[in-house]
Amino acid sequence: MRRKVKRGSDNADVDMTPMLDIVFILLIFFIVTATFLQEQGIDMRPPPPSENEPTEPNPVILVQVNDRNQVFVNQDPTSELRVLAAVSRIRAEQPDSAVLIEVADEALHGTIVLIWDEMKANSIPVSITRAEGGEG
To answer: Are the C-beta atoms of residues 101 and 116 closer than 8 Å to each other?
Structure first.
């Protein structure tokens, strides 16, 4: 007599419940045993007032570029190519001075970038601001 071999069906299902149980147990284990670092924050309190007399701030060289792309150094008109020479002349008398570029909204970006790059290339401290009222 022949024995019949029972063949399994092609659609064998795997029970996922035990694997999900293990995953949740591991997740709970790692959450409970994790050590959380205490992040170091930035101290936002202002410094205490100085008892010394306030020192006079460094003088500012004002470079203005108006909406017609005209350039002024301390109210004197100049060419965008001559700004470095004018600033260097003023800094010869006041070596601690910094440059503030005041720009009108309609000024050309190329002029502003040229002035900024010249100041940075010559290690002159520079910052930029928007002109009040859009006029330079």
So the answer is: yes
